[in-house]
């Protein structure tokens, strides 16, 4: 019965309305818009975030499986792994795990919170580009199917506590990537993969569109004004690469949303489940107090001038966008000044 209901739900939802991370600004924004340091941390009068009775990822632990699609730089992989490890590991305040505590405030109808225990449980290297150098949105599910059905070291197909993360390398083009989105999340179709499991995709933007998806470590080519950070300079990436450091924030964005809205029927604002505004969408481009209008907000700078707002394992530092706090009813992160 449950499988029939899920299948029916899938048929009702359009594949091309996947929950996506778009850009932190409109491509038609003027220089005046960029240079305004307005406070876009949110207002309870403007945001109507509601719970729609669907599940959240409350199982403990959540087993996260990474699919490395294409050819990957080992240093970039190490940075991403350390971010995943940091979600459930202690680090100096404000830490990645402190940031995740806001995601944990979201519950299902039984009162169960989003899990605080996310374990990197497996990795699959699709270096043969099993579905080519161009992937449609639907192809992501075929990539997952390949990773769990291959004869050589397949990932487990885990419908109970599995979460799949497809990461595409710099030479892979993805439908709508760099044109409309930097990442998205959804759930697999039983007719394609065999079961319903949540997944997210994020692409490496370092060579394709760093000015769009590696915000704020690069700026759009069309933007000719001053960079809207204090000091009027491009912010340096804390792990040395704009593409992977920008990717980290997109990964955080998508993980927050897939855990609080895995079947697109739990936490979101708006009346249309095929085009939901989710808990990270509400805070797009905000990384610190006062953020908004192209200004990231008050964040830290290390000795070399790298920008960050969270500490991770192994001394790592990350810059990750804020998310909507349902208790405070505003965008929030542990580096908030108030």
TrEMBL record:
One Pfam family named in its UniProt record: Phi_1
Domain of life: Eukaryota
GO CC annotations on file: apoplast
Record's signal peptide: 1-22
Location of the protein in the cell: Secreted, Extracellular space, Apoplast
InterPro entries: EXORDIUM-like (IPR006766)
Entry keyword set: Apoplast, Secreted, Signal
Family label: Belongs to the EXORDIUM family.
Listed name of the protein: Protein EXORDIUM-like 7
